[in-house]
Amino acid sequence: QQQVKQSPQSLIVQKGGISIINCAYENTAFDYFPWYQQFPGKGPALLIAIRPDVSEKKEGRFTISFNKSAKQFSLHIMDSQPGDSATYFCASHAGGTSYGKLTFGQGTILTVHP
Amino acid sequence: DAGITQSPRHKVTETGTPVTLRCHQTENHRYMYWYRQDPGHGLRLIHYSYGVKDTDKGEVSDGYSVSRSKTEDFLLTLESATSSQTSVYFCAISLTGTNGYTFGSGTRLTVV
Known about the structure:
The structure holds two protein chains of two kinds.
Chain A (H helix, E strand, L loop, with lengths): L3 E4 L2 E5 L4 E7 L4 E9 L6 E6 L5 E4 L2 E6 L4 E6 L8 E9 L7 E3 L3 E6 L1
Chain B lengths: L3 E4 L2 E4 L5 E7 L5 E8 L3 E10 L2 E4 L6 E7 L2 E6 L8 E8 L7 E2 L3 E5 L1
Parallel strand pairs in B: 2-11
Antiparallel strand pairs in B: 1-3, 3-8, 4-5, 4-9, 5-6, 7-8, 9-10, 9-11
């Protein structure tokens, strides 16, 4: 079974600090790696995504770092804010005729203290 | 969440009863998905659809069935609800299948 392993399960960061969440995947056919952000009582929302032809993608305070040889990717949140407190999910998409199915990590609960 | 609505938002049902959850979209997206969210497991795919009347199983499909008779509606049925199906259910849509999802707000289902 295709798996995506996410760590840590929970993370506490002070305001202004850097939050780092890591994911590792097994299937080398994965070709799209999104991160989702979920607030309590809401559905996950696409935050940022990367494809394996680049090693880094940055959008504002959010950066994905991608290491194809290690089959790992990570989300970095710079200058973390209390409003970033949420659950974060990494995911991976298998190319070909996978019909867009995503395999999700287990989730990381991020708490940013003021 | 714009363009995608799940109903009901909350439901409590008894063990052994059938339950149907509805996902309605106004985006005309081809792909639709049902996931369940449980602590420690993230989001796991139950069933998905790649067109009207075209559906297939995901990784946790036992005890569930789906139907999609028109583009905008994707129904998830628990044929005989069990306590292990207590969960939060999310519907998601995708235009191309390669550009990520838009999720609904979820249905919290409790089976007692």
